[in-house]
Design brief:
Structural class: mainly alpha
Oligomer: single chain
Strand content: under 5%
Strand order of the largest sheet: 1-2-3-4
Number of strands: 6
Number of helices: 23
Shape: elongated
Order of helices and strands: EHHHHHHHHHHHHHHHHHHEHEEHHEEHH
Helix content: 40-55%
Distance between the termini: 15 Å
Length: 659
């Protein structure tokens, strides 16, 4: 709509006959007093229903985690020790000798068969698949994936794969959460909440880390921070942590002797180690996709055989460094306890990095968290002699946090996760410094993380930055066009059609000025809106006769109110496929303005100017301030936004659209 802006007087309708087309009524009413009906949050009582469902999902995920642990233990004992037992053991103590190489090869062959004839989505570490289900799959997961993913992960880890169980458990817990949600009439957003609740509960049950599991949901999986999703996810995570105690035992998983408060020398060391951890994170991510790219070049060898090649490298690496095989929880314990030092820690870290990245690039099934913890602890053990203060367990913990936060880009999760794994709460500040240094390094050095690169390679873009929608911060009254050209409802339909289908460049009253017009009654109440497209359809159908324009309106009309957020106008225009939406008073429904698509640019434009318009506010010692103060600057931004949107409307740039 064009903005009349005090340039046109209020005029009366012309003769209402097809021969003399009516001149539109100019409506410009003062704004009514604002009645603030808005809230800080958009959450409704359905959150209570989702919370109740999340309790069930959390219990299911805890049982899934227990089953996966049991299956990993059973396969490990059978494959490496030839016994039927379910105790969680390391493959490093086996006595197979060189025959050990064949065990991960056999596991890779089995995974390749499961992927080819079961579901290809079992390949990889699980979290990208969860992200893809959330982003483009409507949070719907296939039932067979919920079964095949944990089995393939158990086979991979149980036959010596250098992976963690958390990625598959996150995917499996999310799959069961999604399946549970599919039995009920829920929206895609509600299914997403239950999928993420299952994923977080699986991680919580695996590591006894309910807070970190909730944080990873916020930082990685939910793509929002709203009570409607955060509360159910936290409840599911808490239930899983509670059920872990009788199923798998209490935490912490890696207890250490508590440290005291640390001084500034330690914090400087954490900063340095964090930057080093960020560099290591970038190298690890590049290494994984380096191997994946080279596997993709093996066009003569079907991808079903690739995990077997990965298994061969795993077996050879196990001959060099047995501690690199399997989940490696015992090795992480040894690193934190100072039992692996110097060259031993370096060799362990290098072998683990090579076999993990190679096998993950081959498309086998397994998680990333436990290997990152081991490699991060290895970096800490290596640099301990170079640090001015602190002991080995301190630097191993900082290295763990820095590596996890850098590779996965979940800094708060990494900090709290390390604390929940060790219960050494005095190291909160050193972990925060090290993790943020690593996070900042990888954000600047890498375009995408190890988790999002695979999603991007499948043609989907996602962003890890969350911000409040600028249209949520503006009210309709702040962006609407106040002086509106409207059509009277008692106008003959033939006259309205003549106006709507008139050519833009035809002089006289038959030339239409806008793509759409609000329709009002004699008391200026909104009846609806008509568009150029509707006029063409009526003209083609031969509609007319004695009918009035009001007869073509549907009730109730789609309107917004001046005290609503501007995002409501945007949503209504998208839902109804409207060119513009009338603004009416709440009390009597009288027309006071319209919001067009050009008006909606005011919010993003204001945000853009706040991001890019730089200037000094306070005077410098050498030069006086020339920038306006904060309030005046805000006014300048608002005026610029209005000027741009007003010019766009005055130029007649509104495109035609369906009514």
């Amino acid at each position: 709509m064009q903005d009349g802006a005090n340039r046109e007087p209020r005029v009366s309708p012309a003769a209402r006959t097809p021969a003399a087309v009516a001149v539109p009524v100019i409506v410009s009413r003062p704004l009514p007093p604002v009645r603030d009906r808005l809230r800080d949050f958009s959450t409704t009582s359905r959150m209570l229903l989702l919370s109740a469902m999340a309790l069930v999902v959390g219990a299911i995920a805890a049982l899934v985690a227990f089953a996966l642990y049991w299956l990993i233990g059973a396969i490990t004992n059978l494959a490496f020790f030839g016994r039927f037992a379910s105790s969680f053991v390391s493959p490093a103590g086996n006595r197979l000798g060189p025959w050990e190489v064949l065990v991960p090869v056999a596991g890779g062959l089995l995974i390749g068969l499961m992927a080819r004839y079961g579901s290809e989505r079992i390949r990889g570490h699980g979290i990208p698949e969860a992200l893809e289900s959330i982003l483009i799959g409507g949070s719907k997961v296939e039932p067979r994936l919920a079964l095949l993913k944990p089995i393939s992960a158990a086979v991979s880890i149980g036959t010596g794969g250098p992976f963690g169980a958390e990625g598959p458990i996150i995917m499996t817990g999310g799959a069961f959460g999604s399946l549970f949600a599919q039995f009920f009439r829920l929206s895609a957003a509600e299914r997403k909440t239950l999928l993420v609740a299952g994923a977080a509960a699986g991680m919580s049950a695996t590591f006894a880390s309910p807070v970190a599991a909730t944080l990873i949901a916020v930082e990685l999986l939910l793509f929002e921070w709203k009570p409607r999703s955060l509360i159910p996810v936290a409840l599911a995570s808490a239930v899983a942590a509670l059920l872990r105690v009788p199923l798998l035992g209490p935490g912490p998983l890696f207890p250490v002797a508590p440290h005291g408060p640390q001084g500034w020398l330690v914090l400087v060391g954490c900063l340095v180690l964090g930057v080093a951890g960020g560099g290591g994170s970038a190298l690890l991510t590049a290494l994984v996709y380096f191997f994946e790219d080279h596997f993709l070049k093996l066009r003569r060898l079907h991808w079903m055989w690739w995990p077997a090649l990965g298994g061969l490298v795993i077996g050879l690496g196990g001959l060099i460094e047995p501690g690199a095989l399997g989940v490696g929880y015992n090795t992480i314990h040894a690193l934190l306890a100072g039992q692996v030092l110097g060259a031993a820690a370096l060799g362990l870290m290098l072998v683990k990095a090579v076999i993990w990245s190679f096998s993950l690039g081959s498309g086998t099934s397994g998680g990333v968290v436990a290997p990152l913890l081991m490699m991060g602890a290895g970096i800490g053990a290596i640099v301990t002699p170079l640090m001015p203060a602190g002991d080995l367990s301190l630097w191993a913990m900082v290295g763990m946090s820095a590596m996890l936060g850098g590779v996965m880009r979940v800094p708060f999760t990494a900090v709290i996760f390390t604390l929940e794994l060790t219960h050494d709460w005095n190291l909160l500040l050193p972990l925060l410094v090290g993790c943020m240094a690593s996070y900042g390094t990888t954000v600047l050095a890498m375009r995408r993380s190890i988790l999002t690169e695979k999603v991007a390679r499948r043609g989907h873009h996602l962003t890890r930055e969350y911000a409040v929608d600028p249209l949520e911060m503006l009210r309709v009254a702040e962006i609407m066009t106040r002086q509106v050209e409207a059509l009277p409802g008692d106008m003959p339909l033939a006259a309205a059609i003549a106006l709507l289908v008139g050519e833009r460049d035809r002089p006289g009253p038959a030339a239409r000025r806008h793509e759409a017009y609000p329709v009002i009654d004699t008391e200026e109440r909104v009846l609806g809106i008509v568009t150029h497209t509707a006029g063409l359809e009526w003209f083609a159908a031969g509609v007319g006769g004695d009918r009035l324009l009001a007869d073509q309106m549907t009730a109730p009309p789609a309107v917004v109110h001046p005290d609503q957020p501007a995002s409501r106008a945007q949503a209504l225009m998208a839902e109804k496929k409207m060119i513009c939406v009338p603004v009416a008073t709440r009390q009597d429904g009288k027309l006071i303005g319209v919001v067009s698509r050009g008006d909606l640019l005011a919010g993003p434009l204001r945000q853009l100017l706040e991001e890019t318009d730089r200037g000094r506010i306070l005077p410098s010692p050498r030069q006086p301030a020339v920038q306006a103060n904060g309030a005046e600057a805000a006014d300048v931004v608002g005026a610029a936004a209005k000027e741009v949107t007003g010019e766009a409307a005055a130029a007649g740039t509104e495109p035609a659209a369906s009514s």
